[in-house]
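Exercise 7.
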Amino acid sequence: MATDREMIEDITRLGLRAVVLLRGVMVKKVDRETLEWGLRELRPSELLEKYFPRLIEKPEFVHLLNILHLVYSLEGQLDFQIQEYGLDSVKDDLQEINLSLQQVAEAVEAGGDVQLGNLRTESGTDGDVTRKA
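Solution. The predicted structure, written as tokens, is:
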């Protein structure tokens, strides 16, 4: 069974990668097909299945659950969202994920439990947009 530290790192990494994709959409560097592919590659449903029971056990995991739920919903509802509101509507998701990532980082920093500073986002040529430093 994964530790809380692994769970925090896995979900934070998912959130950071989603942010990179969504920022790419906002600056017109990522198109709809690339966004769909990228969200599928993140496999949010696997993390949701793996961690959901633990995420709902502790209120302090609310921001992690929010990140996971947002990315999972975005992947599943992307067609509808784009049809109804356009591709630029992902800006709201980007802001929400960023806020939750910030709150996770603050909570971790206050608790001293996990160092998230070793997770960096950068554009990769092999499709992996997030690497450990």
